[in-house]
Amino acid sequence: MIEGPYFVLTVLGGLGTGLAAGVFCAFSTFVMKGLAALPPAQGVAAMQAINVAALTPAFMIVFLGSAVLCAVLAVVTFVLLPDEGTVELLLGSALYLFGAFGVTMVANVPRNDALMKMEAGTREAAAFWTTYVREWTAWNHVRMVASAAAAISYVLALT
Prior knowledge:
Blueprint: H1 4-37, H2 40-53, H3 57-80, H4 86-116, H5 123-158
Helix pairs in contact: 1-3, 1-5, 2-5, 3-4, 4-5
Protein name: DUF1772 domain-containing protein
InterPro entries: Anthrone_oxy
Keywords: Membrane, Transmembrane, Transmembrane helix
């Protein structure tokens, strides 16, 4: 069984990735649907405000802190090669680092950056909005599933 500081890291990794999965789940299941139901100018303005608000320490601790924990867990697992939980720990780390953090950096953030450069009430923003919502949400589904699967993997490593 995983013990000591390694146990604490694994519990925190599971908690962080689970919290991130919850945030992504909220966006996938109702936030983006609510924003898409607004007139484009309002939806764009609301998403721009959300993107600014997301950069607060509370969310960054969960999102980036989980990435750091996953990286630490992967390195420690490679170094220690524990008798139990190795596959689950490495899988959980990979799922979050590539499926949540990586997807955020290569898929969601570039779309957010493009949206932030637009004036909410313009034709350009209105034309972009439908594509943005569809593509951003599809990639968010990937982040949600990857984060949830990472949390499950960490829990399984503890059993």
